[in-house]
Amino acid sequence: MNFLLRVLSLTLSLACLVSPTWGRPAFKKCDYRARNFNTISSIYNLTVYPNQVPIIFGGAGNVPDGLFSHSVAGRVYPVGNFKGFEDSIEYFFALAPLPQGNIKSAAITSYKITSFTSGCRNVAASVVYLYSSVVDPASPDFGKPLAPLKQVAFWRFDGQGAVVKYDAWIPSLDRWIELIDGTPSTDPTYEMQTIQRVCATAQLTCSGPNQQWGSVEECVADLSQRKYGSYSNAWGDNIVCRTIHLVLTQARPDHHCPHVGPTGGGKCVDVPYPEDFLSDEDLYGDLVGETFTC
Ligand SMILES: *[C@@H]1O[C@H](CO)[C@@H](O)[C@H](O)[C@H]1NC(C)=O
What we know:
alpha+beta, 2 domains, 6-stranded mixed beta sheet, signal
């Protein structure tokens, strides 16, 4: 896939350079709308199972070159703000479910960019539907379509067409998770099962210097005292926040284990609204309103 993408981007950059009016800047003749669409489309293609697996298990280094700038920063509401290449990329794809991580064995199986506009070289806006279905061949529902996940996003690109800043929103994330998990997230039995799953996995992936609790029992006792949280507000010292960060403990345990642990590692901590949620100047380094404006 890497190779194909490289050939594709080479073809695109050649198309940009082949211009009868030599001497003018190459980008003037470059179809930036197509270039930006191609970047966004390739990014969403990496949420389609199993394309995200190497990123979740091996980290951001498995993202093909040219999609994200090395200084990328952004927000995926309601999950969090992410600064730097590794954090940004790992969290962007951590939300693409692994079938073994949910009750219905669901994953994203296709996508469609339903809205797209790019009024200038550096900025685009898009809406994508990420279609999910049951992917476990052993399940009686194998192949059955589930609900799509919607993401609305504004993007800023660098001179090469890689994403350098993004502001994305997933409406009704909690409703969608309920659907692929097959249980209302307010069910006490389900909440206890989730805590047990978080603790069992955390004790496995966070070992040695990354260990967070003395035992699974200690973890369960600790987490049972905390708020459960919800996917419509996953920023906080709660269980839902820890389920998202848990996915990434396999990629970089030293970095991600503290987020799951007792302190929340600066990620699963309570932050007063609207601190972080609207901190555009700090996140993007621009005056508010300038980042995604043509
Ligand atoms: C999506 O990824 C798959 C698997 O790597 C690849 O075969 C396919 O060509 C890609 N499609 C697009 C539209 O990028």
